[in-house]
Amino acid sequence: MAKLCPCGSTLSYPDCCGMIIGRKKEAATPLELMKSRYVAFTMANADYLMSSQHSKTRRVKESKQIKKWAESVQWMGLVILNTRKGEETDDIGYVEFRAMYLEAGQIQQIHERSLFERENGKWVYVSGVHL
Ligand SMILES: [Zn+2]
User: Fold this and answer.
1) What is the DSSP letter of 89?
2) How far is the centre of ligand 1, averaged over its atoms, from the C-alpha of 120 (Å)?
3) Domain residues of the chain, as ranges?
4) Could you identify which of 45, 68, 91, 93 might form a hypothetical disulfide with 40, taking C-beta atoms 3.0 to 4.6 angstroms apart as the criterion?
5) What is the DSSP track for 56-78?
6) What is the pLDDT of residue 3?
7) pLDDT tens across 98-114, in order?
8) 21 Cα: distance to centroid of ligand 1 (angstroms)
9) How would CATH label the architecture of 13-130?
């Protein structure tokens, strides 16, 4: 049996976020994009994290640092707390989530409300507010 996708779904990675990360499918909603970005963090896939971020906030120079950090921690799970907008007729959407990870033996969490926008018709991550 294939391992379940780290985003917390009941599908295997190739059938779930792997479709979006592998560019076989576009994220239909900010939530799908958010999940794929969490999974990319668990795989330290900085290239995908860069390409799924809006060009106006993307900092390519930080790519190596992000990769190094993502590799240094142990990802423990993602909890989606809330979503707003992000429907087919919207140009923006919000996802509030909690992501847990183990860093230097301590459980840490990111509690963030992320803003997503469409860029060239595709959902991309813009920025986040830590809560
Ligand atoms: Zn997934």
Assistant:
1) T
2) 23
3) 13-130
4) 45
5) TT--GGGHHHHHHHHHHSEEEEE
6) 84
7) 999 999 999 999 999 99
8) 10
9) Roll (3.10)
